[in-house]
Specification:
Layout (H helix, E strand, L loop, with lengths): L20 E4 L3 E4 L23 E4 L6 H8 L3 H7 L12 E4 L4 E5 L6 H7 L4 H8 L9 E5 L30 E7 L4 E5 L5 E3 L4 E9 L3 E7 L5 E10 L6 E2 L4 E5 L12 E7 L15
Antiparallel strand pairs: 1-2, 3-4, 5-6, 7-8, 8-15, 9-14, 10-11, 10-13, 11-12, 12-14, 12-15
Length: 289
């Protein structure tokens, strides 16, 4: 006897055991009870990216560095360093950079390694890589350095071993007024004037380096005969080239507002002395040259 094709005749079969399915017309399956959707068990959560981000905060009336630090759970030094503050006061409407943890931020430059950065800020290399979720770095990267510290530089008041005849050591690099007073962690001041105003070599020397970075903008470094380097940042125009010799008072560039500047800083030159004392450290904000 030939076997019968199960789909050759019209019939209805009902399976009435524990099954939730019905077979109709011998060839159609449909649910007899509502479909069951299993509940999803959450085994873990993804860390909130915002907990690692640098944010901006607008100072409100009555805020102080201490209260803002408490609000975000970071140290007062963290706010001072990140915002390049020379005073203990902040003003309503001022924009502050807020790091996600106590420490510092660092913009990677040529030659940097994670170990070098960790050593510079007395931090741990593995904490830097873990917090920033990185395996390698490249020039221009911005890193948060958990627990990092900016060390006060050890400076020397030693005069140059060689001077240009008739000149004195380190003149003001521009005319204008001090818009940002002395900051020991940079050994620097800012001198403001109109954009395009000339910037002068503070002493005779050799142009060590020129370029642009995300912090200093257009910058020039001059190596002097005693090993001290002077740094001029935020230029609108650079007028010298590496290897060139310059005399004290020679124009090396123009005042600008390039690079990373916070708030309404206006056009100015950031003047920094590396490896020596800054003769304008005691000058008050507003002092005119």
């Amino acid at each position: 006897m030939a076997s019968q094709d199960p789909f050759s005749s019209s019939r209805t079969v009902v399976i009435d055991e524990s099954s939730d399915l019905l077979i109709a017309q011998g060839n159609t399956v449909y649910a007899a009870t509502p479909l069951f959707f299993p509940k999803v068990q959450i085994l873990g959560s993804i860390e909130d990216v915002s907990e690692r981000e640098i944010i901006s905060y607008t100072v409100k009336e009555g805020d102080s560095i201490s209260s803002v630090a408490d609000k975000f759970g970071i140290s007062k030094d963290t706010i001072t360093w990140a915002n390049d503050l020379s005073e203990s006061k902040i003003r309503s409407g001022q924009e502050l950079i807020i790091l996600p943890v106590s420490g510092v931020f660092h913009v990677v430059s040529s030659g940097d390694t994670i170990d070098k950065i960790a050593s510079k800020y007395e931090a741990e290399s593995d904490q830097i890589t873990e917090f920033n979720q990185i395996e390698s770095i490249k020039e221009g990267d911005i890193l948060v350095i958990p627990g990092g510290k900016i060390k006060k530089p050890v400076v020397s008041a030693q005069a140059p071993t060689k001077k240009t005849s008739g000149s004195s050591w380190l003149i003001a690099p521009a005319s204008g007024y001090i818009s940002q007073g002395y900051r020991w962690w940079h050994n620097a001041i800012d001198i403001a004037n109109k954009c395009g105003s000339p910037i002068y070599a503070a002493a005779s020397g050799t142009i060590q380096e020129t370029g642009y970075d995300s912090i200093g903008g257009n910058y020039v470094k001059i190596l002097h005969s005693n090993g001290v380097v002077t740094y001029y940042g935020h230029m609108s125009r650079i007028r010298v080239t590496p290897g060139e010799s310059v005399l004290q008072g020679s124009q090396i560039g123009d005042i600008g507002n390039t690079g990373y500047t916070i708030g309404l800083t206006g056009c100015h030159v950031h003047f920094e002395v590396r490896g020596g004392s800054n003769p304008f450290a005691s000058y008050p904000e507003g002092h005119r040259f």
